[in-house]
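BACKBONE GEOMETRY TOKENS
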Amino acid sequence: MSETNGKFKKAMRPIDVWGLALGAIIGWGCFVLPGSAFLPKAGPLGTALGMLIGALLIIVIALSYGYLIRNFPLSGGEFIYTKEAIGKRNAFVCGWGMILAYWSLIPLNATALALISRYLFPGIVQQGYLYQIAGWDVYAGEVVLASAFIIIIAVINIRGIKQAAWLQTAIALTLVGCICIVSFLVMGISDWSNLAPGFPEGRGWWKGVFSIVAMAPWAFIGFDCIPQSAEEYNFSHKKSTRIMITAILMAAVLYIAICTVTAMGLKPWEELLADRNNWPTGFVIRQTLGLIGLIVLGIAMFCAVVSGMNAFYISTSRLMYAMAQEGSLPKWFGHLSPKHGTPKNAILFTMAASLFAPWFGREILIWIVDMTSVGAAIVFAYTTASAAIIAKRQHRTAQMWTGIIGCIFSLFFLSLLIVPGMPGYLSFQSRVVLLVWIAIGVLFYLNIRKDYVKGQN
């Protein structure tokens, strides 16, 4: 498509879309959470089982995405699917949850750069102490670092999807290569008996496994970035299902690899966690592979962070563009740059909103991300239900049942997060943030309802 006809350019190759999905799935959590969340909850075997089960459940959900992409190759993804199958009101609920889930991961990944610097280059970026929020020290140097990357990635996205896609592909491949190098080296020189016991002592194995399964919507959120750029593929949309599945499986392998390396690399994993190191994964790599190994791990983390920011810039801006086209956001967000064919206004707004976040400290952002699993589970439920409804209209019985099963899995994920006593039940702070976001959405919807729902069946 031309640069001036108001349409997206078809510039994304299959490898670019795969890199988009994988880069969005693998972020800072793959490197930071093994020692602080995954292993304490489930142990090495429980984490591996939980990740594999979660990945398989997500793949069932992804089958509905692939079907819908083929039927509706439009930017906006889940929002468009829900509108076509269930109606505008439900589409707004779906889109509102997606905006929070996608946007919040941009500043969170940006602030992860400061977190990386604290471990790799202590004291260099931690300059100009400002204040403390929720126990997290905020430094001017870290705010500047995070803000600089937020702006740089925004500029790359404004200049065109081809540049953004090339960057995403290169970074995703580097990410995979670095994790493979570190994993093979550590596994080759470590004592595998350090992985025992497979599950934490005194905690039921099923509870550990399903506490990891409950995190699957968060852990694998990113594969659903693929439909957001569907208008920009330069290949058949039939390939999208295979691309999603391979990205999900690769992500599961990478999660398990980093957890296994952390658990086995130095000493029995329960002893390692008892030492209360700030970053067990980094400590293990430094002690087993030296500074060079830590640098390779740092490169992998940097790639994960930047690719995550880039992927969610692409997805958030395309979603806001689609919602603006449908009248659920102001038309201003639906403007495409005449020169670059990108949703410039949506990118600029996403950038501006993200620039506020580093000033509030990382802990508050983590409260937001903790509840994005709820948004992701709701979006998955809407998408799979939409696939089932549309497949029934088209007399596609097998696809209809695939959608129904995917919807059941999505509601299962949701129950693990919002039902008291379940393994993944949200913290109090995350529940408060969720209620605030819902309240804002209700107020916004009441303001646009008259014009937005006009003409709905």
Residues 280-325 form the longest helix (46 residues). The chain has one domain: 14-452. Confidence is low (pLDDT under 50) at residues 1-6. The longest strand covers residues 129-133.
